[in-house]
Amino acid sequence: MVKTVAIISLSSGILGEPFMGHELQIGLNRLKNYGLNIKFTGNALRGRDYLNAHPEARAADLLQAFRDP
Fold first, then answer.
1. 3-state DSSP: the chain helix, strand, coil percent, rounded to 5?
2. How close are the terminal C-alpha atoms of the chain, in Å?
3. φ, ψ for residue 7, nearest 5 deg
4. Torsion-angle region of residue 13: left (phi > 0), alpha (psi -120 to 50) or beta?
5. Cβ–Cβ contacts within 10 Å for residue 9, how many?
6. What is the rounded average pLDDT of the residues 25-51?
7. What is the pLDDT of residues 6-29, one digit of tens each?
8. Which of 64, 53, 54, 50 minimizes the C-alpha distance to 7?
9. Is the entire prediction scored with pTM above 0.85?
10. Helix (H, G, I), strand (E, B) or coil at 7
């Protein structure tokens, strides 16, 4: 059974924007209520500007999550 999930920002990076804090907390609470542990990849919360300029960072996060047992 899956116990830990990784949060990855593969598209817009909006999750890392300050105005998304409330929605982020709602999502984290829902996942925790399912008994899951949450890990953020290194760039998941870097924001739109950074992730738009660094697609390699998004790719690295995805590979990191796949490699993590």
1. 55, 10, 35
2. 12
3. -95, 120
4. left
5. 23
6. 95
7. 999 988 899 999 999 999 999 999
8. 64
9. no
10. strand
Angle, CA of 3, 39 and 47, to the nearest 5°: 145
Long-range contacts of 61-68 (CB under 8 A, 24+ apart): 61/8, 61/9, 61/10, 62/8, 62/10, 64/6, 65/6, 65/8, 65/41, 68/6, 68/39
pLDDT of residue 12: 86
pLDDT at position 1 is 79
Beta carbons of 16 and 47 less than 8 angstroms apart: yes
